Amino acid sequence: MNYLTNGWTIRSWLLTIDHKRIALLYLGTITLFFFLGGAAAAAIRLNLLTPAGAFLSAEAYNRMMTMHGVIMVWFFLVPAIPVTMGNFIVPLMIGARDLAFPRLNLMSWYLFVIGGLVALYGMVAGGVDTGWTFYAPLSTAFSHGHLVAVAVGIFISGFSSIATGLNFVVTIHRLRAPGLTWYRLPLFLWSLYATSLILLLATPVLAMLLILLVLENLFHIGLFDPTIGGDPLLFQHLFWFYSHPAVYVMILPGLGVVTELVSAYSRKAVFGYKFVAWSSIAIAVVGFFVWGHHMFVAGQSLYTSLLFSILSFLVAVPSAIKVFNWLATLHKGYIRFDAPMLYAFGFIGLFTLGGLTGLFLAALAADVHLTQTYFVVAHFHYIMVGGMVSAYFGGLHYWWPKITGRMYPEMWARVAAILIFFGFNLTFFPQFIIGYLGMPRRYHAYPPEFQIFNVLSTAGASILALAYLLPFGYLTWSLFKGARAPANPWGSPGLEWTTQSPPLTENFVEIPVITEGPYNYPPREGLSRHG
Amino acid sequence: MVRTLFFAWGGLLALLGVQVGLAYLPLGAAHLYFALGVAVAMASIVAWIFMELIRAPHLARIFAYAGLFWVMAMFALGGSDYATRAWNRAMGIPSANQLPRD
Amino acid sequence: MAEQSLEKGYEADTSLIGMWLFLCTEVLFFGALFFAYFAYQHLYPLAMAEGVRRTDLTFGTINTVLLLTSSLSISLGVVQPRWRTRGFVGAGALGAAFLVVKGFEYAKDFQEGLFPGPGFIAVSRETGPEHIFFIFYFTATAIHALHMLIGLGLITYALKGKGSPVVVALYWSFVDIVWICLYPLLYLVGRGAG
Fold it and tell me: How far apart are the C-alpha atoms of C17 and B61, rounded to whole Å?
């Protein structure tokens, strides 16, 4: 008897308030969006095989790249880890039976689905060609497409984000098991807490901006129209006030997952627990004060740009602290190269590279040349795809036995992880080069001297596409034919591993009382104690 | 408690009177700041007394003040752009806004 | 959640904390609109003042008094259980009155050509883009009115015994605070000789 077998009707799934079932509902939805966004990416890369644009017109290309961005940002990356692994694991990790507001949780899924459908309608019915940033006045006066539908869809899904964030914050504050103090929490929860803070504080600003954008589009009121006194930069301020913290929403859960994986697969307590914990909070807080670095060349005041540049350098520090702590955790650890660990290693390297290239962009003088080129595109894909998607797959594999009660096939998983790493680098490293050489982003055609790099990139993308299909295949297979998983296949400490796999609907037979820290591995013979 | 509520309401109405009166004084550009000050006073009465923020759980107060802090940060950092763009123009750097300023 | 409620009122406190956290998000939501307002107030102070002079101070002030009193009413309903129904019904009635007054005000505004867009009637070209003030005026008051409607729904909910009265009262008073901040910016700043 477990949460999966507790009710077989569709009603018991669609009206569930069990956080674990809701997590699975979300998992299905965002997997669908991941493949839709990926299909758009395939169209983009195929088109860029030839300098003149292989098979898409400029209008069609603009719609594809916008669709890719909108879907991947709002309907995959922002929700990904929080709504799947967060929803599933948070109550288990804190020793609770569910989140603080279970019905709000279910409503958040419905809002997400409705928002997604409305946005998809807009993209299919006519498409939006402004890029996922839909700057005004381009998006309000000159573009063609169903901007209002997409904006409304994103607006609705924003409520889903806020609901999820609210639920997590209140749950982590109020529902911890007896004895579970803040410094005994697994670091994944610190990351999710920080993520939730951002969701709560940033998303409302986007909501207001979307309202203004829709009003401008429908009634041509002229708020962002410079010919009648509007300020286009105001749009950008409001947009990036949300969207920059949003990128931390996207990466923080990944950082939390990697912390768990690094500890689990080196069988060692995380080095510098408090530093890692507070670095998540620091990223969330400082991340709110750097948004102007997207506007260095937009006409923003030079003095404001200076301020944002300094702050952008500062925000890199807590991320670096995490990387150093992971490395120190690995040192003298008992390391196993299971698939989740391969993903974690890939994350550490690719996230670091992506993060360092962000520093180039934070420097005003360099940014003047690099902005709006493929350098930026490569930078954020290294972090989001090389980093975040790797963390997503790593976490998915790590907790798969707990969620489904089945083991995935280890060999296939390792093959996929390695293929992803190579395919990813082949896709995106050439983009650093062409960006540096000056190829602009969002162009459907380009000068012939960049072709070889684009061809390499597309080749990498096809490997990457295959590599992403592999987990979809073998994970589905494992649901039916995978070996039954024990309660704790990895030998990890942590409350979630004390429950059966899959867990009971009510999670715990008895709410546990916590008496020790989160990474209590038994000391190994012949080695001095660390951590 | 009931008496406190009525006093608070009286205070709010008095502040409303001040608020309206200020509009007719020759304060110039400073009027905006006075008006905001009175508004903050009124909002504080509603928050602390009507919404019982002073007696609320510790965490509720933290959340309330956090929201304020964040919005202030938005105003400060974003506002610095508007406040210092004129310095750009003095150096010959064009701004995004085309109409002449008053 | 039953096992975690070791102290009396733990669950009630959790709902209270949840509502304050939600109100925090509302501060950012309206804050974004205020930010846009302040940006344009900085860029076009004369045009904004011109807009303020064209709003109806009587309607605005009456509405402010209605809201302040409705906040009192709902707070009385919370602290005195035997006045609960009266307090909440009173608050709802005053809130509904606010919306009625607003309706009359909007009708008058439309007639005077204040709605931004092609039909907007500017007073003078020299002061700057006056329609921007009215974008704020209509957007802010409409979104505020929407929040009032939701608040009326919540009050009805609470009167039927569902949901927590304290939490509903928090929401209601918060919407009042939003109006307290809007009122001077929409009706007063720049109106007088100053």
Answer: 9
Coil, helix or strand for A6?
A: coil
- Lowest mean pLDDT across A40-49, A298-307, C122-131: C122-131
- Shortest CA gap C101–chain B (Å): 18
CA distance B89 to chain C (A): 14
d(CA A213, CA A226): 15
Domains: count for chain A: 1
Residues B15 and B41: beta-carbon distance below 8 Å: yes
ipTM of this predicted complex? 0.91
The DSSP letter of residue A406 is B
CA A1 to chain centre: 33
User: Is A327 domain-assigned?
Assistant: yes
Decide if A517 is inside a domain.
no
Q: Are A392 and A34 in contact (CB under 8 A)?
A: no
Of C192, C153, C194, C190, the C-alpha closest to C171 is: C153
**Around A106, how many Cα atoms within 13 Å sit in the side-chain half-sphere?**
12
Tokens 């709410």, located at residue: A511
- Whole-model pTM: value is 0.93
The two tokens of residue A355 are: 């993060």
Q: How far apart are CA A193 and CA A183, in angstroms?
A: 13
Q: What is the mean pLDDT of residues A412-424?
A: 96
pLDDT tens digits along B4-48 = 999 999 999 999 999 999 988 888 888 899 999 999 999 999 999
CA A407 to chain centre: 25
Contact A401, A407 (CB under 8 A): yes
Token readout for C16 is: 């209270």
The CA distance from A137 to A79, in Å, is 29
Q: Which domain holds residue A21?
A: 10-497
Q: Which of B25, B87, B101, B102 is the mutation pick for testing C, counting most C CBs within 10 A?
A: B102
Lowest mean pLDDT among A374-383, A434-443, C127-136: C127-136
* A154 falls within a domain: yes
Q: Which of B73, B84, B91 sits opposite A304 (nearest CB)?
A: B84
Cis peptide before A502 (omega within 30 of 0): yes
Question: Given CB atoms, is C43 within the 8 Å cutoff of chain B?
Answer: yes
Residue B94 has φ and ψ, to the nearest 5°, of -70, 150
DSSP-assigned beta bridge partners for residue C27: none
A304 lies within 8 A of chain B by CB: yes
Give the CATH number of the domain where residue A86 resides.
Answer: 1.20.210.10
Read off the pLDDT of residues A180-211 as tens digits, 9 standing for 90 and up. Answer: 999 999 999 999 999 999 999 999 999 999 99
Tell which residue, A142, A145, A157, has the closest CA to residue A73: A157
Q: Is residue A5 part of a domain?
A: no
Number of H helices, E strands in chain A: 17, 0
- Residues A477-500 pLDDT 10s: 999 999 999 999 999 998 999 999
What number of other Cβ atoms are within 10 A of residue A55's Cβ? 11
User: Which residues, including other chains, have CB under 8 Å from residue A11's CB and lie 6 or more apart?
Assistant: none
The mean of the pLDDT values for chain A is 94
